[in-house]
Amino acid sequence: MYRSTCIHAMRTGLLLAGLAAAGAAPAADAGWDWMVEPYLWAASIGTDVRTIDPPTESESESAFSELDGVFMGRIEGRNGQWGAFADFIYLGLSDSSDGRFAHTENDIDARLLDVAVSWRASGERDRGLDLFGGARYVDLDLNVRFEPNNPARPPSSLDAGASFFDALLGARYTWAFPGRWGMAVRGDASWGQTEGTWSASLMGSYRTGNGGWLFGYRYLEGKLGNDNADVTLDLSGPVVGYAFRF
Fold it and tell me: Are β-strands 44-51 and 56-62 bridged in parallel, bridged antiparallel, or unpaired?
């Protein structure tokens, strides 16, 4: 029931953002342009898991080289003061660590989807202040296996998988420098079925004929959980991608 509610809410958010973009699509002659950006986030991933039954704690910090799978992409459309975007991240990670009392094995699959409508509060296209609002969907599958160092204690495992749907608010400020260079700073936060998530990024850009290279640094933290587990997930690291414009 809980997952069904989350999926229904996510579809509603996608539909609203899609209608906003589609409703303006016929006005392409008025200046709509689109950007498709595949990118790579070389993130270190930290997890902090605390459970009630059984009472356990697990912390891990894993490098990008230990990812099992990754897919990241963004699409954005803009026309004058209005725009819409969708940003999707999939990360799969396996990790193990030896603690003081137990050997821990973590298996994480995380999917994050941001969908929002933006409004240009000041400035011109590709420069100035944008405010945006929409939805953030987080789907987390986390399996933790504990193997105690004391052979008298049996191994145990935790499955903390759950889906979360939040309202998303944020802002982005973009600078365009002489020549082909630019820079953007972005911050956002979400609330709802999570205990709160937030992210911040600083990105540089270099324009080319068909789009532009993007590079910078991003941090994201989310406090997730259910009746039996509290999970804090944080990702941080450099980002590089190419934005195709049409």
Answer: antiparallel
Q: What is the pTM of this model?
A: 0.75
Can you tell me the distance from the alpha carbon of 142 to that of 157, in angstroms, rounded to the nearest whole number?
A: 10
Handedness of CA 93, 98, 100, 103 (dihedral sign): positive
* Domain interval for residue 214: 2-245
| Contacts for 219 with CB less than 8 Å, ≥ 6 apart | 199, 200, 201, 234, 235, 236
Burial 37-68 (b: 16+ CB within 10 A, else e): bebebebebebebbbeeeebebebebebeebe
CATH, residue 224? 2.40.128.90
d(CA 114, CA 137): 7
Total domains in the chain come to 1
Task: List for the chain the helix, strand, coil content (%; round to 5).
Answer: 15, 70, 20
Nearest to 245 by CA among 35, 23, 14: 35
| Structure tokens, 181 | 């260079």
Query: pLDDT, tens digit, for every residue of 71-129?
Result: 899 999 998 889 999 999 998 777 766 766 777 777 778 899 999 999 999 988 778 99
Do residues 39 and 61 lie in contact, with contact meaning Cβ atoms separated by under 8 Å? no
**Contact status, residue 42 vs residue 217, Cβ threshold 8 Å:** no
- Token pair listed for 136: 């953030």
